[in-house]
Write a structure and sequence with these properties.
Elements: H1 2-32, H2 36-41, H3 44-49, E1 62-68, E2 71-79, H4 84-94, E3 97-107, E4 111-120, H5 128-140
Antiparallel strand pairs: 1-2, 2-4, 3-4
Length: about 140
């Protein structure tokens, strides 16, 4: 009988540890994910007011960023332009982000879906919102 109660005690403690870990991870996710409102739409007004950044027929790039500890996931939906990937990668390097993996998929005739997994270096001091904004500006400048 002692053996069964010991197993139940250990199982109960383990479940409590798992519940606490879930709470910790949920808090981490909440503090590190850029919300849709901040990450995809708030920059459109700035872009529209700065016509030298893009022409009226050109789509403003959608940029979403998620962070987990030192890992950064960047998802970009933008118009296909010559040298766009070079601009993005150069910008990330300037921000001390090391690209671990990237993929580019053509969507339609003139649109790209870009996914980048990067890792923060020691010198990375840019917030998620700033990363979204500066990436858009870098992609829109000539």
């Amino acid at each position: 009988m002692e053996n069964n109660s010991s197993i139940l005690d250990k199982a109960s403690k383990y479940v409590k540890q798992l519940q606490e870990r879930v709470r910790e991870l949920e808090q981490e996710v909440e503090s590190n994910i850029c919300s849709s409102n901040k990450g995809t739409t708030s920059f459109d007004d700035e872009v529209n007011s700065n016509d030298h950044y893009y022409g009226r027929n050109e789509m403003a790039p959608e940029v979403k960023v998620k962070v987990s500890q030192k890992d950064v996931l960047i998802i970009i939906h933008c118009e296909k332009k010559k040298g766009i990937m070079l601009k993005i990668l150069s910008h990330l390097e300037n921000l001390h982000l090391s690209v671990l993996n990237s993929s580019i998929l053509r969507f339609g005739k003139s649109t790209l879906d870009i996914t980048i997994v990067a890792q923060m270096g020691d010198g990375h001091k840019v917030s998620v919102d700033e990363l979204v904004k500066t990436l858009r500006v870098a992609m829109l400048t000539k």
